[in-house]
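fyi for ur records
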Amino acid sequence: MNNQRPNDKKPKMPRFNLNWIYFIILSLLIGSFFFGNDLTTDSSISKEVKYSIFQQYVAKGYAKSIVINKSEGKLEMYVKPQHIRDVFKADSKQTGKAPFVTVQFGSVDQVEDFLGAQKKAKKFSGDLAYDNKKSHWLVNMLSYIIPTLLILGFWVFFMRRMSGGAGGAGGIFNVGKSKAKIYDKVNEVGVTFKDVAGQEGAKQEVQEIVEFLKNPKKYTELGGKIPKGALLVGPPGTGKTLLAKAVAGEAGVPFFSVSGSDFVEMFVGVGASRVRDVFQQAKEKSPCIIFIDEIDAVGRARSKNPSMGGNDERENTLNALLTEMDGFGTNSGVIVLAATNRADMLDSALLRAGRFDRQIHVDLPDLNERKEIFQVHLRPVKIDQSVDIEFLARQTPGFSGADIANVCNEAALIAARNSHSAVGKQDFLDAVDRIIGGLEKKTKVMTAQEKRTIALHEAGHATVSWFCEHANPLVKVSIVPRGKALGAAWYLPEERQITTKEQMLDEMCALLGGRAAEELATGHISTGAMNDLERATKSAFGMIAYAGMSERLPNICYYNNQEYQFQRPYSETTAKIIDDEVLAMVNTQYERAKNILKKNEEGHRVLAELLIRREVIFAEDVEKIFGKRPWISRSQEIMGEDKPQNAEDTATQGDGEDNPETQNSINQE
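which gave:
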């Protein structure tokens, strides 16, 4: 049965647009101007002369033909081609093929008598015609108003463009207006607190802000005041902006969203003007929330040594923001939310109580929070029964919410690429490898000697880490090139809140195991350990200069976060001591790694040969060679297991050269 209504069968007419009228009027004007005049001049030029001059032209034989218009009292004399230069002082290419002169006359009879006499004298032998048509009134009118209309049209066009269009917020005339987007409809954003997984503490804080706005009497009747601002601080990808979107979706009050960079403009005073404008709009719609994303773009610490005579626009904008948040006036009912991952760069006046009363830390998710995040991002993904969310959460330590979302998306793409009916466990493992280590380069050609060196290097990492008590548990070792890395040893790092000196030294020793293995097995060292050396050196410097873990410089921290201070907070003598201590610490751990490899030389050789043959080996393969690891890691204690169940379960964790949280060794050429 056809349920369509009769009106549905009618063809849909295009929507009316006011620009059509403009186009039609302009076309009519141009058409009337160019085609409304009945002339056959073939784009020839003309000029107006006196009647006496006209008589001279005719008497000299210049006239080819004459057209008399009685109604207008005007005639047109067309000039013979050979006399065009005599009349117009130009050739026919410049004047056209039929140039003419126009003459105002007093009496038609007088003109006819003159022409009759010239014919008898054989000075004029051309045609004489009469044209009694009046010039079209529209043509006469357009000859005056078209230039004016064109000038006016261009002026309106450029003014509209400069003002950012009709009602636009940008442009030169509205440059001081705020670019904040306002959400004042329920569920307009489409994100609620149910869509935010993990971060329970941060979520509770922002939920309380929403409750402040919905039921302020609950808090104010006891003498409390609604917080003026809350700053979301955390690493990139942890969900700061997502929390703000959830607030916008749940608040039920107007929500202004603006980026810190929107206040920055090349014109002086524009940033401060936009700050004042957004707060003025917020006051008119209070109670409401203002969210400033990436506030470090405008809230960076002010310079203590400004240039002489300079006008720092960013500082003026920050001063306006400070005044609006807590100045002489009051902003009752306006709560400011802001997000940044560079809180150490913000001005101290911006962070004080009364402006940002709360600093909400949105940290990297722990194991249970990663499970919740996986559950959210796996809702639209078609997965099979082999996928264990708890297993995936275990294999992704140090991952942010954005990283987990990327893992889920990459796994779906890999499954589709392999024509799978659903996304399986191995697809997720391949996705983790792809994101952490980079794209697998199957076409990279290596010589047998290079492959053996890489295998010895990675086997050295695995051997040393196996016999270091505090080194992270090994997951797998690979010599398959990925990204810039020629090989990698993948570990499952423990999620520690604090790290001891012994733990850091064991991890440093495991990092140096690759180069130590190359030197012992081949007698040569290569550039493959560059990434390992860089990480070991940075770790040693941090331990000595920042953590106070040096014997010669105990309990001293030289860390300084002052952005505009270019001098080191220690003397040249201390710098020499730090360099000596770093060198001694690294070399001590290097010798320790060599000693471990010498004691287990045969096992290291067998492990390297197995790696050359299979390219990828797992923790259980290392266990068959060296025996069970003497120490059980804290993460294994929490999980209630002392080793992975099978090789497939271990085919995951690792991290690229740019993510030190997971402590993986990656060789680079």
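The longest helix spans residues 572-599. thats all i got for now
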